[in-house]
Amino acid sequence: MWVPASLVFTLCITQSLALLQSPPRMVKQPPTDEILFQVAVHQSENDKPFIIECEAEGEPAPKYRWVKNGKPFDWQTYDDRISQQPGRGTLTITVPRDEDIGQYQCFATNEWGTATSNSVFVRKAELNNFKNDDELETIDTNEGEPFSLKCQPPDGWPKPSVHWLIQAQEGGGIKSINSSRITIDPEGTLWFSNVTKDDASVDSTYACSATSYFRNEYKIGNRVMLNVLATGTSASQNRHEPVQQYVTRKNEVAYLGKKAELYCIFGGTPLPEILWKKNGSPIPHGRVTKNNYGKSLFIKHVSAEDEGDYSCEASNGVGSAKSYSIRLTVLAAPYFTVEPDIVNAAEDESAEFSCDAKGVPEPQIKWIYNGLPIDQAPSNPRRKIQSNKIIIDRLVKSDTGNYGCNATNSIGYVYKDVYVNVLALAPEITDAPQNISVVNEKDTTLTCRVFGAPKPLVKWIRGGTELTGGRYKIKPNGDLTIMKVNFLDAGDYTCHAVNKFGNDDRHGSLVVKERTRITDAPEDYEVAAGTTATFRCNAVTDPSLKMTISWLHKEEPIDFDAQPRFVLSTDYSLTITKAHELDSGMYTCVASTDLDSESASATLIVQDVPNPPSLKGIKCDELEAKIAWESKGDNRAPIVRYTIQYNTSFTPDSWDIAAEKVPRSESSYTVPLSPWSNYTFRVIAWNKIGQSLPSSHSSVCSTQPDVPAKNPDNVEGRGDQPDNMVIMWTPMPEIDHNAPRFQYRIMWRRAIEGADWQSKDISDWTVDRITVPNLPTYQPYKIKVLAINEKGQANVAAQEVTGYSGEDSPLQAPRDFNVTLIDSTSALLHWEKVTNDSVRGEFKGYKIQTWTDKEGMENMREIHVSSDNSRALINKFVPYSKNFVRIMAYNGRFNGPPSEILSFNTPEGIPEAVPSLEAHPLGSSALLLKWQKPLRTNGVLTGFKIYYQDVKGTQVGTIAQRKPITDPKQYHAKLAGLKPDTKYRITIKATTQAGEGIGNFIETSTLPPVAKKPDVPEFRWKNEASDNGLSNIRVHWLPNVEGYSGSHFQVMYKLRGEPIFEISEPQLDEDYIIVRGLKPGETYEMQVVAVDGDHHTESKIQEVETYSDGPIITQKETVATAGWFIGMMLAIAVLLLVLIIVCIIKRNRGGKYAVHEREVAHGRSDYPEEGFHEYTQPLDGRGRGSLSSDAKGLGESDTDSMAEYGEGDAAGMTEDGSFIGQYSSLQEQKRQKKLKEEQDRAAATETRRFTEDGSFIGQYVPGSKPRAGKAADQPSPSALATYV
């Protein structure tokens, strides 16, 4: 099998490197903290083996030894419980025992050095039982008070996690506790912020649970029955100010990278709210989250910036707020800032190890040499040891060995073991340059990793020239970096490595492609919370590369599946629906290919309502209060004002406004108070997004009683019956009573000199009216309403108002009502005023009611006219209609009697505007207009007028008019001769004899000129009347308004079979052409040509047969429609019919019927006395029987007419064919009637006779015409039988 030479070379290099001398290097080792194991305690448990890893690489292969608790550990002495994995130092403990606890460390040694592993403490995991875990304790507590249940969890390692649960007494079922009032502290105590009756134990107990997650085991103990004692007070009175229950210690320590949680648990009724701050400021959302319904702060991964002073404030509106502060200090185990690296060097070179670390407290760095402290290593005068650095000059082979850096503080340690390997090797390129692609204007690196001792010198060559300086940079590891690559950098590159033992070369190539560029970058966005934000992004790249566009938020990829509010559209735009404050931040659009990526960022600011203000205090005076507050953040939209709200003991569940627009610069404000009230205040902040949640409420301000400061507002009086008056006012809220025993005193009197006041007291403050009965109709009264309490009458005078007793129906209708017609919609109405006394109420004016005969009175329109008018010009009449009108007076409650109804006809008016108008481009210079008929024509439509003018910006050009449309049923038109790519205002007006109606206009643009053929057109046609014997055809062009139809058209036509088409003149203004002068009875081939500029497209050819009364589209000829076939079938039918007739005649010539006697019996005596000439024409020249062109014109059947002389089956023939039977009177009457009808019709039919041999002789009677669908020259067999 053929193997590539490059692969063989690579394998050789790998093998040679693998065989090079090397001190040991740890590749697997124990962790730095601890390893847990579990010992089987019960027979039902199984032993759980564990391992302590240790594995190193080196040449020759290293040997391993272990140290336990600082002493050599001989694991072979532990029977078969402990074994070491073959070829590795890893220990496997299959049967753990308590004696396995200890500090372990592994060492790997070969002839070149000793590598040291991490030191790890192996610890036993265990969980003990609760003390007295079977005891059940009963505890009593009062409803509404804070309370706690103590848990004494068992010992264990790791420290068990403590929870409380509710355990059913029967069945042992358990359920978790999840309530904002109940919290578990880290020590296992269950805290009730306040106890409710629902917390009482009913068929269940509270139990404490300790869980070991490593052992997958939990224990239950400290069972408690809880009795909740009722206090006897209402829920609104059972209130307790905040009381501290559990808090984290004042000075708390957290460890870098670990989790931390700060607790602030307070009890009280209502449930206290906890407000957290850090260093005196609100804690921003993000890394810190609130747990336990805000009672704890949780930090998932502690960082140095989390250090600081944390405070919590608990308040519930009862008493003063309580606060607590915690100082959080962040400690850190050591971590490397500079790590030592392995050094491969040649003799006479230098080696340097650097090591630096940080931590809190500051770590101490110590060096290890071949498993021992550096101070115990053999002396080496060429080795310089510093606190964080070791330098070895003029290396010799014996300097090969392991060095370790150990950084330690009180929290932990970090350790790394490396080595120096002194070698003598020719250069080998271990990682050769590849054939790579890169985009322009980006930096790129060609790889060339070299191994050799001494360290080889690396050069890069292209086209025989060494690449140095400028945009080319050779890294210490041999790689070549080209900065700002351009298309001229494409080509082949050579890496050349050389030292004193030899050299090596490798080759690679570079392909340069167009870089990715963002063409439409996202822009900064500012939205209100709850609305939608959209970022747009698009990019271009090299055509040979596949590009993807993705989005980042705060430098993290957006997971569109996990966040359905984030939507990625097909155009790569990012839409964020229902945005909230956490969506704020930087959004980055990343356009990437396999070779590069480009990004553009924009900031989203989601503005929300402000945070609730913090109420700082209140100062209460006799009749005013000063409220002070502090802003707690505007959520990215500046605060514009504050609102101060209050509630009182009168309305404890509602809040009213004390001051609505307090300037944003204020942090305190004074508001007035009313006497005899208990006030509580709160503050709301406003920004442009909306209002914040309210602040916590203030303490109570109380005021002393006083007389009322006002009287009721909105006092009025009016009757709801003709003989009464209802006095109404707005009730005064309790806040305005100012003292107990509040009442209203209502006073009224006639509005005449000397009239006495009457009064009535109302003690129910919610009443807002009284009714005064037995008053004369519509008379004025003086009214006032006073406010009174136990301190006296209001300190302001009550306002007197004028009211009226009730109204009655007006008595008089306006007289002398007449109409003077002005135009199609207007008329001047005249009438005689009614008297004021007849109105019997407040004279509001007149109502004019009008309707048309089509609308009916139920759809009347009403116009109001003031009471001082006796004439009015009304323009609400309907044009071109019979209008009706009447008038009546009215007062505040009733309409008066109407006048007589007048009717009149209005002349035609101008039409309303057309309800819709559309324009569709036809090519680049025409528009197809479509509209609808006006809803009200106001007359007889005579057509439409179309005006148009070009539009440039806000200016319109000169008005031009299209040829008027005189067909009122035409609702489309073509507007031609327009300029391409121009905006036009198009106005259409319907017309009647009264003139042009109201215009409706649209603005639209013609298409720009394009070098494009129109779409294939379609057309239809119809016959046009002609007065010269020739045919005319109207051809209608059907433009495709959805495509590109062209601007005008022509018609091409020719007789079928002729080679040359004739073509009509171009039709520019209409969508039809009348092709005149066509030969009737001919077949023409026609097609429509759509034209736009120099381009045209023909339609499919259609064949049309021309006739004097219109065209007939030629059908494709088939056997069923071919003329020869139809003629042949008709001839066969005629021959069969003649044959049948001859057969019937031959049959009936065997005997003669007594026809003459029969006819005489039926009243037909118009025959000569010599008898009936059976085979001759009647003497009077009139036809007989059914020789009419319609064989059934008399209502006869197609059977032999002789059957009519009998009655059904009773009639018959003798053997010689003579008739046997008798007439019934009914049959005789029917026969006479039919014969009479026959005689009347005979004059209008043709005269015929038959020869003795049955041949037919006859001619048409002038003026006769056969009926459609009947053969006029062929009598029916029944008719022949009548006369044979």
Keywords:
1284 residues, 6 helices, 6-stranded mixed beta sheet, mainly beta, 44% strand
Task: Describe the fold and architecture.
Strands 2, 5, 6, 9, 10 and 11 form a 6-stranded mixed sheet that branches. The chain is flat, with a radius of gyration of 57 Å. The protein has 1284 residues and is mainly beta. Helix content is 6%, strand content 44%.
Write a short abstract of this structure.
The protein is about 5% helix and about 45% strand. It is mainly beta and about 1300 residues long. Strands 2, 5, 6, 9, 10 and 11 form a six-stranded mixed β-sheet that branches.
Helix-strand layout with pairing:
Elements: H1 5-18, E1 22-28, E2 34-37, E3 50-52, E4 55-59, E5 63-68, E6 71-73, E7 82-84, E8 91-93, E9 102-110, E10 113-116, E11 120-124, E12 126-127, E13 136-142, E14 147-149, E15 156-157, E16 161-168, E17 174-176, E18 182-184, E19 190-192, E20 204-212, E21 217-229, E22 240-247, E23 251-255, E24 260-269, E25 273-278, E26 281-282, E27 288-291, E28 296-299, E29 308-315, E30 322-338, E31 343-346, E32 351-354, E33 356-360, E34 364-369, E35 372-373, E36 383-385, E37 389-392, E38 401-408, E39 413-423, E40 425-431, E41 435-439, E42 444-446, E43 449-453, E44 457-462, E45 465-466, E46 472-474, E47 480-482, E48 491-499, E49 502-513, E50 517-520, E51 525-528, E52 533-535, E53 538-540, E54 548-553, E55 556-557, E56 566-568, E57 574-576, E58 585-592, E59 597-607, E60 614-620, E61 624-630, E62 639-648, E63 656-663, E64 668-672, E65 678-687, E66 701-702, E67 713-718, E68 725-730, E69 743-750, E70 758-762, E71 769-772, E72 780-789, E73 792-793, E74 801-804, E75 815-821, E76 827-832, H2 836-839, E77 845-852, E78 861-865, ...
Parallel strand pairs: 2-11, 13-21, 23-30, 31-39, 41-49, 51-59
Antiparallel strand pairs: 1-4, 3-8, 5-6, 5-9, 7-8, 9-10, 9-11, 12-15, 14-19, 16-17, 16-20, 18-19, 20-21, 22-24, 24-28, 25-26, 25-29, 27-28, 29-30, 30-33, 32-37, 34-35, 34-38, 36-37, 38-39, 40-43, 42-47, 44-45, 44-48, 46-47, 48-49, 50-53, 52-57, 54-55, 54-58, 56-57, 58-59, 60-61, 61-64, 62-63, ...
